[in-house]
Amino acid sequence: MKIEGLIARIMAGFALAVSVVVGATAAEKVNVGICVSWPGYAMLKVAEEKGLSPDLEYNFTLFEDPIGGHLATAAGQIDVYMCTGDYTPLIAERGTDVVNVAFTNPSYGVDHIIFSPGVTAENIKGQKVAAPQAYIGHLLMGLMLDSINVDVGDVEWVNLNSDEAVGPMMSGDLAAAYLYEPWISKVLANREGAYSAINTGDPAMLKTGIFMDVIYMNKNFVKDRRQVALDVMKARWDSVQYWHDNTEEVNQLLADYLQWPVEDIGFVIGTNGKFFEGGIYMYDFDETARVCGALDGDPPFGLGNGSMVDVVTFINEWWVKLGLMKEIVDSSSAVDCSLVKDLIASGYRQSISAN
User: Fold this and answer.
1) Which tens digits make up the pLDDT trace of 187-197?
2) Looking at the structure, do residues 102 and 219 belong to the same domain, yes or no?
């Protein structure tokens, strides 16, 4: 009996060892790109750290260069890419192997156009305005000018990122600039009379849907490894759920990963597990599905059900106005809601509110 018992224990241990090895080798490797250091782009890090998707092995690349990340995704070096949605019509125009598979969260007031003292709708013509070309700041500046009936050709454009525009704003070289925190506070605190003319939390801006973070995927990844792509999508929203339920813990996790002060994480994604006014608003999966037209009901902030392609087309129209694109293209070629629809068909649902 002792020998038989020993053999049984050895065999059981061998079976366990084999299962561990098989499980380890069976993990699907997924290359994930994060276009800039930003909490909303890092939710899959939560899935990795908290074991929410044990069958997936993530390889994260933090680009700090959105265009570089898009090129890597188009080349198949990145499978899943978290970034802003403003590049989607350019994907359609160029026919690259990339698709926008989901909207994840709109800017909820984190992006502003700041006017220098004394600058108004009546005198801004002919003056210099700064915004980073081919980015959401470019769009926001264009929409701001449109709202005050100033043609985009009636100002002198300067291609500056937010941190680069602070100095010229302080010295008075710019009439207006696209800024986000902490640069907004620095300018407003140190230049008396400077003020915010518009921000992405304004109802009219939210209703456009164009100031949106999204998930891109390589087309071949979606086609050849579809189940893995579905698992990644589910893991991303399972991470949102975990953040909602354990907000303080996850905010610290993201702070550690991105090397941010944890307070700054809260000033972007909030501490209530849903949003921060002046930061971003996190879509739950049901809200994302409604933008895709995969679930009945309206998405937040005045967007229509199934309006994802319409939003991308609107971005396309503005890129034409701003001279970045020459014509309106078929945006549907750069949008793929089929993964969201498959998850809905499988019964996956998620609806979260602020704690």
Assistant:
1) 999 999 999 99
2) yes
